[in-house]
Amino acid sequence: MLEVQAVSAHYGAVQALWDVSFNIAEKEIVTIIGPNGAGKSTLAKTISGLISPSGGEIRFMRDRIERLKPYAIARRGISMVPENRDIFPRMTVLDNLLLGAYGRKQSDAKDSCEWIFQLFPVLKTKSSKMAKTLSGGEQQMLAIGRSLMSKPKLLMLDEPSLGLAPILVETILDTIAKINEDGMTILLVEQNVQEALEIAHRAYVLEEGKITQTGTARELADDERIKRAYLGM
Q: Is the pLDDT of residue 233 over 70?
């Protein structure tokens, strides 16, 4: 479904990604793990069109997308939940969700809302509340729900557990696994390595802007270097 081939990216004169290559098959959860500053968020932004790559190719459903604008990439079926969530705090929960369905038929948007409310019941109970009144975990649920409103083919999540209490991390990641069970393909960019490997099918390790290791999630969870570096074992 998604093929990233030898992609490099820069912030001005500073190179952040070095010939990064990986792929995602339909209905997989693939996670990109690594330390802070490794380039994980840069990679997600490059795929979504927010950063233009300085080299390499990105193909989605076999078509090249690396030179498309972010809105064109979104229309093709890639939706990203950003690291900082980017909800609209002075709009209601429901209005935030409906923005995610912009351009879709009203009946389709209504069906999507019902689906989101089944995934995150708390959003239904607070649908008329201002988004700024939600807790951090609820805001993350809203950000995920808004991205799902467009019915994407590929959902990318950039650090969805960031800043959340452990019990909320478990809830968010369990929901991501359920979304995948319903048929959604997911790219999970995550610093919370142990939890990410528990729900992913395959994983790539990104360190200093380069892919340094890859394998099934189970293989990496059992790898001694990964245990020492990321799992505290």
A: no
